[in-house]
Design goal:
This protein is of the alpha+beta class. It contains 4 helices and 3 strands, in the order βααααββ. The chain has helices at 26-31, 47-62, 69-82, 85-122, and strands at 2-8, 129-133, 136-142.
Amino acid sequence: MYISIIFRKVGKRKAPIKEDKSSKSKAAKKGKLVLKDPNKPKRPPSAFFVFLEEFRKSFKKENPNVKAVSAVGKAGGEKWKSMSAAEKAPYEAKAAKRKVDYEKLMKAYDKKQASIFYLYSGFIAKSSKVVLLGSFFVLQFFC
């Protein structure tokens, strides 16, 4: 009996190719549902989103009656555009620090994923082979 096991390649993720929305049905969308790993670190926010975290608090204090998320985003975007590079610098520094932390976490995560992959491949017969197919590892072996 010939068996293939497919593992996703560890590394950068590529954005999926967008298809025409009219051709998709709800059943087709449900069939293509991909489970995400809950242990994978979240990507760090950009400098703008670091700024927006602080701006959101001050905006809500000044405008308690405004409940729309879009209003906060619009006001934050206008203020960000009007800020000078010197005013944006602290937010860019915070974003860079978070990015460095994220990269450390991703290295540890990738190392763990690779060790899991090799653990799986250790249980398989010596006649197995690993093939890289696009962004997936295909582990093939005979039983």
